[in-house]
Design brief:
This protein is of the alpha/beta class. About 45% of the residues lie in helices and about 10% in strands. It is globular.
């Protein structure tokens, strides 16, 4: 319902955010279902769902795991050089991060650290879906036999050109693409007297997708007879020792799955 508060910039932003969630519900449930089937099959068969994101897409990776209400089977891949840029200038600044995310060959160095199994898959988070590194990650993952899920903004990708030598964009490479339903350019609020829009939306869209996907994957795992080892909040457990026990179970399960990357011991 429209209220006076919706006419302020804060109210407009929250209204836009709600509309994005509504569009995801209306248009993306089928692709979320397809992605959840891939993730559940991977985890149930003792594979890993590798989650890649550079820049602010790192937040989507961390929201997938480790986060309260998440579980091992999703494996975060985050490069510090691409995400530790809050200095803005100087060491680890934005310029370096922007440069690296466009370098296709950087994917070779990253992927050389991992061994992939027959049941593994990958989720690539990138709101733009046009930079060389994320597209190369997806291409090389597919070459290794992994199914690739993309979480991206189709509106943004379709309004810009690819920075990968193939000319392809992330959604054109992935086996399943989930649209985060956010606008080209990301920022959404226009203010009189200001040339550029403020307040980005892609994190809201991507994180909504992450948690919908996480919930459906867990549901499918249960249907297949496998119980996710859930990282739960230590603040609301019936007994403090119960929370600690569950945390240790999560650690053990994560370590068990991580060993598979480097071969079984």
């Amino acid at each position: 319902m429209q209220t006076q508060n919706n006419h302020t910039s804060a109210g407009r932003y929250l209204q836009i955010a709600g509309e994005i969630i509504d569009r995801i519900v209306e248009t993306q449930m089928e692709t979320i279902e397809q992605a959840a089937q891939i993730c559940a099959d991977t985890i149930v068969q003792d594979g890993l769902v590798f989650c890649w994101g550079g820049g602010h897409s790192r937040m989507s990776v961390e929201e997938m795991f480790p986060r309260i209400g998440s579980y091992p089977g999703f494996y975060p891949m985050v490069e510090l050089a691409l995400t530790f840029y809050t200095n803005v200038v100087g060491a680890d600044g934005l310029q370096q991060s922007f440069f690296l995310e466009r370098q296709e060959r950087y994917a070779d160095a990253i992927l050389s650290n991992y061994e992939f199994g027959p049941h593994d898959s990958m989720i690539c988070f990138s709101s733009t879906g046009i930079n060389g590194l994320v597209i190369e990650m997806a291409l090389q993952a597919k070459q290794r036999g992994l199914k690739v899920i993309a979480v991206t903004s189709l509106a943004h990708a379709r309004s810009t050109i690819s920075r990968h030598s193939s000319g392809k964009k992330l959604y054109e490479v992935a086996d399943v693409t989930i649209d985060n339903c956010t606008p080209a350019g990301d920022a959404a609020v226009e203010l009189e007297g200001l040339k550029y829009r403020v307040s980005p939306t892609s994190t809201i869209g991507a994180v909504a997708v992450v948690n919908a996907l996480k919930a459906r994957t867990a549901e499918l795992m249960l249907e297949k007879g496998v119980e996710p080892v859930v990282l739960t909040s230590p603040h609301f457990a019936d007994r403090p020792e119960e929370a600690e026990e569950q945390l240790q179970r999560v650690y053990r399960e994560f370590k068990r799955r991580k060993r598979m990357i480097y071969g079984r011991d």
